[in-house]
Each structure stands twice: as C-alpha cells, then as structure tokens.
Amino acid sequence: MMDDAGKAILSDSNRIISKLQLLSVFFGDEIIYRIYLRSQVIHQLFEDNPELDINKLELFHLQFTQTLLDLLKKIKKNNEKSIMILLDEIQLNKDLIEKIRESLFSSEQFRLEQQRQALKINTSLRKLYQVLSDDTSEYPFSKNVNSFSARYSPDFYFDVGRDLMTELMQYTPAEVYSNAYATIQRKLMGTLCKYDFRSSFFCGLKAGEMIAEVYQINDTDRFFIYFPARGLFLFVDITKINAGGTHNELSKKEAFIRELLDKNDQLNSSINMIKTAIPANIKTLLTENYKKLNDINFLQNISDVDVQANMLKSMLNTDMM
C-alpha cells in the first residue's frame, strides 16, 4: 500500500506530465511528444509497482522533466519576444500603408485624368491657334491646365536626366510661333491643324523640378512635348524617351504599398515558423535525451538521466537560444 507521501509524488507527477503534454501539442514536435509518452510510461511503472522507490520518480521529474518544462517555456517566451518584434514591424508597415493610401492617386484616377488633360491641351492648342492667327493678347490656356502635372508627377511621371530634358526643350527661334503665353513650333501647329487638334496623353517626364507632358497626335506616329512652366510645345523624338518603358502606369506609391504588403506576408510566414521553433542544438539534445530514456533501464541508470538533466540545465541558463 502506497503512503500519502507516495500518492503526493504521483499526483505531482501527473501534473508535470500534463504540462509536458500541453507543450508537446504547442510545439508540435515529434521528439517532445515521444518524451512525453516515455514520461507517461515511467510514471505508470511506479504507479503500478508500489514496491519501487517512488522517490526515484520524484528525482526523475526534479532532475529532468521539470528542467525540460522550464527550458521549453523559456524557448516559448523567447519566440514570443521575437514575434512581438515582427508584429510591431507589421503594424508599422500597416500604418505606413494607411498614410500612403490617404494621399494616393490610383492608377484608375490617373487614366481618367489623362483623358481630361488631353481635352484641356487640345482645347488650349485650338485657342492658341486662334490667338496667334488673330494676333490678340487673349490667354489661350484652359483653366487649371497645369494642375494635372502638379498632382500626378510625383507618383506617375518618369524620371529622366536633366541633360535629356534640356535637350528636349531646345528649338530654333525662327521655327516657332510665340506670344506672351506660349511658344509652339510652326510645323507642329500645322500638323495639329491637319489632324483637328486631336491628341492623347502618352506619358509624363520629370527631372528634378523640371516637368513635361508628352502627347501623341491621334492617327499618327508623331509626338509632341509640353513644358507647363514655359508654355512650350515642340515635336519630340519618342525614341529618345521610350527606352525606359514609359507605358508602366503603376504609381510609385502603389508600388511601395505592394512591397510593404509583400513584406508583411513574409513576416506573417516567419511568425508561423518562429512561434514553434526550437534551436537545433536543443533539438539534438532532446533526441539524445529520448534515446537515454527509451533505451536504458531507468531504475538502474538514474545517474545517466542526471547527466542529461545537467546538460538541459546548462541550456536553460544560457542566452544562446
């Protein structure tokens, strides 16, 4: 008949093994689960054989199982700290995405505004033709014609070199019409008249503070460039600016948002891995522990368990995890 002290040891043993079971489920690691099962077998051995020295079961838990529990809890806590760092980064990314979206002009908005801007430019050019023809001082440009570039150039216009931008705005004075508000190449004006001042926005360019809009004359392969700050219209050789793939209309802010979203996906994947990660050196030791518990005669070689327990304790007291 087992005395009260023995029953108390068995009760504590059940409690410890239950904790080990919970951690084996949490980590989902096969070797921890095997150690849990082996601990159950050892416990049952003492429960079914009252003649055995129950103090050895207590010693086993004190030296080995409790130390293993403490080690796994420390790993779990360290993992949670690492996860908190990643969660903070994810939240910072989310906050940044929200701020960017508040000031973001979407690609769809940009495409719609391109059409409106092209209409404004075409109307302005028709008006400029009339003003030049009638030799009046009337202002030819449509209302807010330059707000398009001011709004969309930071996100959607393509960066080019200053040298190229300077080259594109060169012209021969004798070959242009000009007044107080605008300058336009004579041949460009003639071509626009021929095609009824119909053109479509092609792309925007920027070099620092220098901004330009490029248009294609409808039903032709001819392009012209408009410099809002100078009211300047010139033919442009599209091959000089088309090498960079100017049909990409993805906003830089939108592209950055995509990068942040992808980064958060990667961080979330990392969190799932980190949550139950066990350092390789500890997994190796646990495997050795299991072999000891499984292969030796536990009662006759309790000292071997002590050796393994001391190794676990050394892991528990180190920061190298």
Q: Give helix and strand order, one letter per element, not per position.
A: HHHHHEHEEHEEEEHHH
Strand order of the largest sheet: 1-4-5-6-7-3-2
Helix content: 55-70%
User: In the residues, how many domains can be counted?
Assistant: 2
- Separation of termini? 45 Å
Please report the total strand number as a whole number: 7
Instruction: Sum up the overall morphology in one term.
Output: rod-shaped
User: How would you classify the helix and strand content by structural class?
Assistant: alpha/beta
- Low-confidence parts lasting 5 or more residues at pLDDT below 50? 243-247
β content, as a range? 5-15%
Mean pLDDT: 87
Could you tell me the radius of gyration in angstroms? Answer: 38 Å
The largest sheet, given as strand count, sense and whether it forms a barrel, is:
7 strands, mixed
DSSP summary: helix tally: 10
Question: Can you offer a commentary on this structure?
Answer:
This protein folds into two domains: 4-98 and 279-316, no CATH class; 108-250, no CATH class. It has helices spanning 4-27, 30-48, 54-102, 107-134, 147-156, 162-168, 186-194, 252-275, 280-295, 302-316; strands at residues 158-159, 176-178, 183-185, 199-207, 210-217, 223-227, 232-236. The chain contains ten helices and seven strands. It is rod-shaped. Mean pLDDT is 87; it is low at 243-247. The chain has a seven-stranded mixed beta sheet with strand order 1-4-5-6-7-3-2, sandwiched between helices. Strand 5 and strand 6 (223-227) form a beta hairpin. The longest helix is centred in the first third of the chain and has 49 residues, at 54-102. Helix 1 (4-27) packs antiparallel against helix 2, helix 1 (4-27) packs parallel to helix 3 (54-102) and helix 2 runs parallel beside helix 9. It is of the alpha/beta class and 321 residues long.
